[in-house]
Amino acid sequence: MYCLQWLLPVLLIPKPLNPALWFNHSMFMGFYLLSFLLERKPCTICALVFLAALFLICYSCWGNCFLYHCQDSPLPDSAHDPSIVGT
């Protein structure tokens, strides 16, 4: 279970407020996970626990899934602030 300490913080990284950065964020997270799986080769139990957690987060549409954005989940109020999105 040592390898979970490198995988679980990935689920806590927030998605950017600016929708233009969602693709870049998804690509970065995907490449990080791919390189981690190839380099560190986590045990099967750790990989299954992480994939189950990722599936549950994305399936429930809590808003922190980096694979896609749920259509029904609203953006935070600060996402419509031009001073934040315009940067």
From TrEMBL:
The keyword Iron-sulfur does not apply. The keyword Membrane applies. The chain crosses the membrane at residues 20-38, 45-69. InterPro entries: BCALP (IPR009598). Acts as a tumor suppressor; induces growth arrest at G(1)/S checkpoint and apoptosis via RB1-dependent and p53/TP53- and NF-kappa-B-independent mechanisms. Modulates expression of genes involved in the regulation of proliferation, cell cycle and apoptosis. Keywords: Membrane, Transmembrane, Transmembrane helix. Its main location: membrane. This is Bladder cancer associated protein. It is found in: Membrane. Belongs to the BLCAP family. GO terms for cellular component: membrane.
